[in-house]
Amino acid sequence: MGHHIDTDCIHAGYEPKNGESRVLPIVQSTTFKYDSAETLGAIFDLKEDGFFYTRISNPTVDAVEKKIAVLEGGVGALMTSAGQAASLISVLNVCHAGDHFVACSAIYGGTFNLFNKTMREMGIECTFVSAECTEEELNAAFRENTRCVFAETLSNPSLVVTDLELFAKVAHAHGVPLIVDNTFPTPVNCHPFQFGADIVVHSTTKYMDGHALQVGGVIVDSGNFNWENGKFPMLTEPDESYHGTVYTKDFGKSAYIVKARVHLMRDLGAQSAPMNAFLLNVGLETLALRMERHCSNALAVAKFLESSNQIEWVNYPGLESSKYHALAMKYMPHGTCGVISFGVKGGREAAAKFMENLKLASIVIHVADLRTCVLHPASTTHRQLNDEQLKAAGISPSMIRMSVGIENIEDILDDIRGSLEKM
Ligand code: PLP
Questions:
Q1: Is 357 within 8 Å of 174 (Cβ atoms)?
Q2: What class is the 289-421 domain?
Q3: Which of 18, 122, 235, 337 could share a disulfide with 184, CB 3.0–4.6 Å?
Q4: Which atom of ligand 1 is nearest the CA belonging to 215?
Q5: Which of 79, 81, 84, 180 has most ligand 1 atoms within 8 Å of CB, for mutation?
Q6: Domain 5-282 has CATH 3.40.640.10
Q7: pTM of the prediction?
Q8: For the ranges 123-137, 342-356, 365-379, the one whose mean pLDDT is highest
Q9: Domain coordinates in residue numbering, the chain
Q10: Is the CB of residue 231 less than 8 Å from the CB of residue 176?
């Protein structure tokens, strides 16, 4: 489109024709009517564009997918019912039972469980590496049957900035794609495709929505990966379950994302609901504006916490003192996100007291929302992890994750000051 990202957040994906609804309409229908069986057959065979069943695609969902593809700079996107489904499908699309993949250990706890338990039970093995590993350590994790690498741009909740160029270089040297979960920075603050990532996933539940209205996910395909290196027969050989389609031959650069839709979404049914796509789109319209405010508020909170003698440590990649600052400047020069992690002096008990004393900020599981909220990862989102896994995920018992919202910064700081004074 050639517009700046804040303009694309508003306009991309939907262009009403003469007399049509200015706002993206909610097409709340499972099915679509055609005058001839032949036309419907051609659409079903993917020979013509069109909608036939909302599990595969729907006009409201399609418009939002197109918007997100533009925001990330990809050739296509597939929205899912949750971020979890996006992570699952993104890997399952290129990994079968007997295959192996590599993932960073500093990832969202739910993704860790998905990879470490459910996918293992499906016969797909995952080797976890530190997001701060060296090139040699990363290389050592690969096997003959490795089919992809998975990392988070900015990990939840440890806020490690992954060296995307290093991960892409090593993945490509082994002939496999790099899949990046870009949930925390959003495409407003980071474009993983520019640094060599091949596939991006998001939990759209977070900043993209921003208002905590819906749970959703999305997979975006850069269209850049060469699947024809012999490692991906699922993309280069006929899919007998879809009329013998050879995805790379029939869909070129969109092979991966088309397969994810017509094969995996068809079979798994983890599609986005039209109403949720509509709500997500309303959030996306203000994403650029909100991210700016989230980042400036979070930096002010991080600086305040850093100056307080009641706080043991603060981790925010936007702080110059952060060991991830240089990487953050490289990959996210305009800001990272609104999430900060820190430890209150006094350990787990002090953390609980600090959180309970807050008045404006609420204790919720959610993160990346316009309302400031706090969470204790060790006893909630990451409670399934044992001590060793917690350590690998970068989580200490005293860690508080604060998701700084877009309220007035003075009110947020007053709330924090008030809580600390009562300690
Ligand atoms: N990825 C990241 C970075 C997340 O923070 C989350 C959820 O917190 C997910 C994926 C999973 O997304 P969802 O909760 O939408 O399934």
A1: no
A2: alpha beta
A3: 337
A4: 15
A5: 84
A6: yes
A7: 0.97
A8: 123-137
A9: 5-282, 289-421
A10: yes
